Amino acid sequence: MTAHQKMDKPDTRNRLDDMRQGLVGKPMDRPDGPLKVSGQATYAHEWDIPDMVYGVLVRATISKGRVTNVASDEILADESVHAVITDDRLLRRPAQGGANEAPPQGSKQVDYFGQPIAVVVADTFEQARHSANILPISYDTEGNAAFDPEAPDTETDTPEDDQLDQGDLDQAMRDAAFTVDQVYRTPGHNSAAMEPHCAIASWEGDKLTLRGSYQMLNFNINELADALHIVRENIRMLSPFVGGGFGSKLGLSPEAVAAAIAAKEIGRPVCVALSRQQVFETTMRRSETRQHVRLACGEDGVLTGLGHECLVSNLPGEEFYEPVTQATHFLYGGQNRKLGIEVARVNRTCGGSVRAPGEAVGMQVLENAMDELAEAAGIDPVELRKRNIPERHPEEDIPYSSRRFTEALDEGAKLFGWDNRNRKPGAKREGDWLIGHGMAGAARVNILSEAKAKVTLLANGSAVVETDMTDIGTGTYAILTQIACDMLGLPANRVETRLGDTDFPAGPGSGGSWGASSSGSAVFLACEEIRKKLANKLGGKETDLTLADGKAGTGDKARPLAEILDGEEISAIGHIEPGKTLEDWQQATYGSYFAEVAVNAVTGETRVKRMIGVFGAGRILNEKTATSQCYGGMIWGIGSALTEELAFDNRDGHIVNHDLAEYHIPVNLDVPQIEVVLLKERDEWASPIQAKGIGELGICGAAAAVTNAIYNATGIRVREYPATLDKLLAGLPKE
Ligand code: MOS
Q1: Average pLDDT over residues 367-372
Q2: Is 696 annotated in the active site?
Q3: Residue 31 Ramachandran class (φ > 0 left, ψ -120 to 50 alpha, else beta)
Q4: What's the 191 CA to ligand 1 centre distance in angstroms?
Q5: Could you say which of 74, 150, 390, 621 would form a disulfide bridge with 333 (CB–CB 3.0 to 4.6 Å)?
Q6: Per-residue pLDDT tens for 666-706?
Q7: Residues paired with 610 in a beta bridge
Q8: Nearest atom of ligand 1 to the alpha carbon of 356
């Protein structure tokens, strides 16, 4: 039995507010937590598979050309080495999120330094790695590789449907009382998930089982089937635990196909794990950006014009580009608008989704520009933003769904003590430290994605939730359990949530912050169907049903579920689909950040002293896991502001800092105790459970609060991220 709902109209029922069990929203511990901290959760590399051997990817040491020969004879003479595979089905690039088909394949053509071109299989990982390292490869290089997105001879193109020219921005700039006209740059990022990518493939006849670390199994299985030229029905993918993804595991990546081909060829299970360096070089990078922002406003600070024109980069042939202006389209008004994206084609590691593609870097820069405008106009930065929140979408003239931007700004200002901030750049000093305060807005588009989940109420009165949806550290196990508990009136220990198995109904995957609201809605719908059947048994209406602590009733009398079920079990599949509410309303999540920094007046070192984030993202399903997502986003914001930067060598496009020793993500000492406040909100346009996505919201603009605070501390605007001390030293105020 399938319960289906398409979000063609708002769902005003708000049913989860009325459930007696009352777990939804609570800071419930993750059911998977004890397994993870005790080492019992099996991550991709941790399955104990008998007879398994190891494959290691061989990667290109040129940036453009062709492989002419792989001289495998010598390493194959070593009997511990089973195969050197150069199969045309190997992936040259990872698949983009949601691709649903194989990305470019082949082992001959090389488009970037570090591209996989072969896999060596041996008894142990060490033997395979050594053999891969000494394998002689010959190449023909081809001319015209491009490495620098801003070099004059680098080819660029402009995705047609991402260019907007409304009104006359040039005129608005000329007529404005105050303007900002600046170019900012943000560097590339790596997802740097804690768990490196890994896949273990094993075959039984024509049937492949692939244990991997992936975010979107429902798409990944089709990508794998397409890559291998087999049918989806012959594959089972398992990703029950994923040690972080941040976009790098949205699409199938090369290790999965390499493991599958190798395992078939040698007739034994094969494990292919990426080293940290390989993760940097062969999975997705976030594109660096150049962003030209123009803002025009009147004496009152109300925007009359807004320009955001961006240059990003990717490999030739990739459709994905960093959607930098995604939130710029709807966040602030200004009738004269010019927004655009240009894509430079470079021979660098594939560009793809990295946490909050678009807003992570777009909001970061837009919110710097708004800070500059606030200063130019002499208006409080909080007030300037509030004055520019439009009634309706400034380009599409549609209404907004729930939007608590004003409240987030006000609440953040109050909690931070914004009224007592330092008002004159460079004026507040504590010993050798210059103290500064900064703020920024947060915004991220909200998306609902098609999702299915199966819920079974067992005869003993406990329940099982099943979907191929993943938990990438976000808390999926917790929130799906909580929704089923409330809908079926069960305590947490009587609901078991099973995830990450393609034999289960197809979920939306973990990406774009849509996972919780989409698969949560599928579980909600399945449970609603089960409630109807229970109500039937009790001879009452579903809406009159009271369910709590394993007992059901329709009036005062409640009886144990097991008694009512009398040996039967009830199962249902919930199926949610996005509909008109996604098109006819602008759906997004909003927030604010406030930061206090100290910049050392001698060394230029920045320390973030305090940081507050206030967010509105619809119904919060689990206060603890939602808060943790915001912590993570804001910590990433600190990294983006101060240290994170992919460094490329423009002689061959290789990534210089391809490990966590050289690519500096924040460590404990870099992060103060962050305060996160989640506003109460219900969004009836977003999903039947009135929840929106929150996973990515916390990064969208966070870095700007830090760099705006650096300006307030020092009087120095850093427009080339990250704000490392070399960019501050020369301009630091003298005592
Ligand atoms: Mo997200 S970058 O869609 O995992």
Answers
A1: 99
A2: yes
A3: alpha
A4: 9
A5: 390
A6: 999 999 999 999 999 999 999 999 999 999 999 999 999 99
A7: 596
A8: 2
